[in-house]
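User: Before I run my own analysis I want an independent prediction to cross-check against. Here's the chain; please return only the structure tokens and, at the end, one sentence I can use as a sanity check.
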Amino acid sequence: MSDASLLLEPVARLIDELGRLPGIGPKSASRLAFYILRAPEAKVSLLAQALLAVKQQVRQCVRCHYISDQEYCAVCRNPLRQTGSICVVEDPLDALAIERTGIFKGSYHVLHGRIAPLEGMGREDIFFDDLLERIGTESIREVIIATNPNLEGEATAAYLQRELSPLGTRVTRLARGLPTGGDLEWADTHTLTSALEGRRELF
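Assistant: Structure tokens:
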């Protein structure tokens, strides 16, 4: 008798859906599903409500594409944020990691992806054209490229630098402190602070 034949359809379906989440393999999905099965109904209800609330109440900022519960996110609404500099990141978690350092006082631009031809991701699949529009309308003096220091992140950074340099805007890249192949969201505050302060000019 196979394991699959022992699973009831609702449990199998839950395991399948949980397994679609990034970083969740079959074993983790099974453990989560059986945890949910054992949990009190009130706790499961709270989880379901939280999931629905995220989808119904949270959206992208129309300016920078970070998460927001309003048209503009908290950073874009803050009149104390410095104008003239944009930090470009791959996803909202990266912006959150940089914001925790307390060093960067400008605005963000979330690409929601990276240029990765092997994954079928190109310029049209990320918010690159929106970045160009912001540079043209917001008098941006510096663009800090903070894509992840891995193969796809470096390729995206090179593409951004090539496209942005002719615009006359200073283009810099996060520098020392970030290990090659790592992701920003896992870097500690001191490492990110060092990378921000030591950013280098891209040529």
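Sanity check: The mean pLDDT is 87.
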